[in-house]
Amino acid sequence: DALASQVAAGEVVERPAALVRELVENSLDAGARHIEVHAQRGGIAMIRIVDDGSGMDREDAMLCLERHATSKIRTKEDLGAIHTFGFRGEALPSIASVSRFRLATREKTALVGTEIEVNGGKMVAVRDHGGAPGTVVEARSLFFNVPARRKFLRTENTEFAHVEQQLRLHAIANPQVAFTLTHNGDLVLHLPATRDMLERIRGLVGDELASRLLKVEETTLHGVTISGYIGGPGMSRSNRQMQTTYLNGRPIESASISYGLREGYHTALMKGQHPVTFLFIQMDAQAFDVNVHPAKKEVRFHDGNSVREAIARCVSRTLEKAAK
Ligand code: ADP
Ligand code: MG
Q: Per residue in 17-66, pLDDT tens?
């Protein structure tokens, strides 16, 4: 029902950046090669994601707006080994229940697509859609019907900063996908598709910083495979904005990783400073839980010590090599 939907929605979509997280994940899952994110007024007035992914037929488009209508869980075993990002089938119904929502989608070979309008969880229109193949999801007036939630939104600039950070996280993990971000009609990010991870990082952080990054040679320890780029001790920051770690392609935060980084940089890192990292971790999906929080950010490793040790070892080796 509508109320349960709005309550659940607050946990999945707490702010515009969370919409971006969920909707871009869906676009990636749908095999998109180009993803555009358009925001107005920090994303509070509007977030629109345009992708060139698989699109949906009418039945699926209707179905995906029902709670737990994920196409991504087929068996119970799948729950333990999730390879796509989405797995709960809650994002779209949640977003649609707290916004003025529009989904327009068309499969590549379909002659005509489908457009659905939902107003605060109520489906108000379904019509043919003649746009390009792929999917457009638009959410306007976020939390217009949940004032208690709306109160927690920060300023438009702050909300947009979170939107941009969220898109950066996706962009780094997916260099083969082109991304565009606009705010109030102004182009903020334009990242062409590339095969080269460092090229994508350069597009985000600039030539100067990118040229000083140290390459982390791929290493496996205790079943934890690590690769990527890290900054030298002199490049560390007072905030964590440039500290990104990915687990099987998903941006995550984890205490074990933070401890590992701290240990790896040990005396090189001044107090209160955070190293610049773009680290990619690959692990068996059975070795961790991702469903700790609806926002899916924190990961719980079954063997956190192994992860900490692997990170620490990798970082200290990379720093030692650079110092030679
Ligand atoms: P989940 O991602 O957990 O399955 P969502 O609510 O995010 O749940 O999406 C529901 C379903 O809608 C997805 O499983 C997928 O089949 C479909 N879907 C959502 N977004 C897109 C998209 N951009 N392109 C194609 N299909 C999509
Ligand atoms: Mg999803």
A: 999 999 999 999 999 999 999 999 999 999 999 999 999 999 999 999 98
Average pLDDT across the chain, whole number: 89
Six-digit token string for 256:
């074990």
Over the Cα atoms of the chain, what is R_g?
Answer: 20
- Measure 163 CA to ligand 2 centroid, in angstroms: 17
The H or E element spanning position 243 is strand 243-247
Q: How far away, in angstroms, is 128 Cα from ligand 2 center?
A: 24
- In the three-class reduction of DSSP (H, G, I as helix; E, B as strand; rest coil), residue 223 is classed as coil
Amino acid at residue number 319:
L
Q: What is the mean pLDDT of residues 294-305?
A: 80
CATH of 2-191, one of 3.30.565.10, 3.30.470.20, 3.10.560.10, 3.40.50.720: 3.30.565.10
Q: Tell me which residues have their CB closer than 6 angstroms to ligand 1.
A: 22, 26-27, 30, 51, 53-56, 64, 69-72, 86-92, 135
Structure tokens belonging to residue 123? 């489906």
Whether 67 has a pLDDT exceeding 90, the answer reads no
Kindly give the number of the ligand 1 atom that is closest to the alpha carbon of 84.
Answer: 2
Q: Ligand 1 centroid to 64 CA: how many Å? A: 6
Structure-block tokens of residue 316: 């200290």
pLDDT of residue 83: 43
Name the strands in the sheet holding 250-252, side by side, starting at the edge strand that comes first in the sequence.
214-221, 224-230, 277-282, 243-247, 250-252
Distance 272 CA to ligand 2 centre (A): 35
Domain ranges of the chain: 2-191, 212-323
Query: In this predicted complex, what is the ipTM?
Result: 0.98
CATH class of 212-323: alpha beta
Mutate to test the pocket of ligand 1, among 36, 51, 71, 83 (most ligand atoms within 8 A of CB): 71
Task: Establish whether domains 2-191 and 212-323 are of one fold.
Answer: no
Nearest-CA residue for atom 20 of ligand 1: 26
